[in-house]
Amino acid sequence: MSVVIQPLITEKTARIQAAENKYAFVVSKSATKPQIRQEIERLYPEVKVAKVNTMIMPKKPKGRFTRGGYIDGHSPTWKKAVVTLKSGEINLYEEI
User: Fold this and answer.
1) Is the confidence at residue 1, as pLDDT, over 70?
2) Would you list the DSSP string of 35-75?
């Protein structure tokens, strides 16, 4: 299984990409910072990673009303990595 699952593209991450040269990714929950650094440098050979910050995003309660009543549940927990680059730039939109 790959360490990096997908790039995280939101309004906030687009803002920090432009201003601070930081990129966010959804990563495996068991991934460590050195593994994330190696995987990013392998996927994007033109960049050098300066720093990796990780955070585990908690589950959030979700619910909906149906004909049979209220159904409750929660979203899954996931891990986010914010990667700061020394040099280079990642084109996240080339696969789209």
Assistant:
1) no
2) HHHHHHHHHSTT-EEEEEEEEEEPP-EEEEEETTEEEEEEP
